[in-house]
Amino acid sequence: RLCPEAWLINYSNPEAKLVETITRLTRIRCVGLCHGIYMGLEQLSRFLEIPPEDLEVAACGLNHFGWFQSIRHRHTGEDLYPLLKEKERQADWLADWDELALSRVLLRVYGLYPYPGANHIGEYIRWADAFLAGALMQYFYDPLTEDPWKTGRIPEFVYSASSLREKPLFARAASPAASPGEAPFALTAEELTPSHEVGVPIIESIAFDAPRELLAVNLPNRGSIPGLPDDMVVELPARADGAGLHPRQMAPLPAAITEMIRLQGVIHQLIIEAYVEQSRNKLLQAVLLDPTTPPYRNAVAMINEMCELQKDVLPPLRW
After folding, report:
1. Which tens digits make up the pLDDT trace of 40-73?
2. Residue 174 has pLDDT above 70, yes or no
3. Is residue 73 part of an annotated ligand binding site?
4. Taking the alpha carbons of 177, 179, 180, 184 in that order, is the dihedral positive or negative?
5. Could you say which protein family the record assigns here (predicted)?
6. pLDDT recorded at residue 4
7. 7 or 129: which carries more pLDDT confidence?
8. What is the mean pLDDT of residues 190-206?
9. Which residue ranges form the domains of the chain, and what is each CATH number?
């Protein structure tokens, strides 16, 4: 009411579902941001042995399930996909397995390299756990002695199994805080590096009408990616300026990739309908449609448990 033309910048997950809910159910102009594409750029740089700043890419898809449609050398214009496929075949299969293995398989199967990495891409693929050694360690706890829902203690998140190699067997006491007389912690100019977060640059572009190209933002599709619903929130490049954010028109993705993403669009729609209609049945439809869903009984139990534990913040969903 106070600022109807303002933009809401969302960083929270699940990115696409949240932004789509906001844009479908309200008049708020909302954009979702994620730095995952820069993780993909770093991976491309490692395979190609070319600095990431020398790579010019175009990518689109779904948040945590994006695909590089083109990879070129910024200075020569050379198409680097043939070189990427050649060097990927030469690379050690087990190198950085949790981060790269699933992406490498998808490149071989679909011809495009995905981003950001197995831990996120696997959110949308039923068979992804076979390529994530740390899958069973994520948020691990012993149910004999721990109950996170009752204690509020969230188990540790393990992004990669390789990160546990240097983990000490026993936790050490934290270092004492600096005394009042000690100099405060500070970084030198040489130690500062760009974060790739674009929230502030977007604000600057809109507030001062300073045009800027953005590699990846989450916005309603509106025909930008052929074959996907107009209202579905997708991740794609855009231009920011004083008039707002303008998605870039993209080439079609391969049919199999398009269908995997389109399925998620149906799930988004069912979740929103479940909220509006206060329907556990609609929510169950969404859960059962997801490729990574648990067995039917577990899905029903999960919905009932969630509605009970989060009844203070959720509408009263009913069967």
Report:
1. 999 999 999 999 999 999 999 999 999 999 999 9
2. no
3. no
4. negative
5. Belongs to the glycosyl hydrolase 4 family.
6. 86
7. 7
8. 88
9. 1-131+198-252 (3.90.1820.10), 134-167 (no CATH)
Determine if residue 3 is labeled as part of a ligand binding site: no
Reported pTM: 0.90
- 13 in a labelled binding site: yes
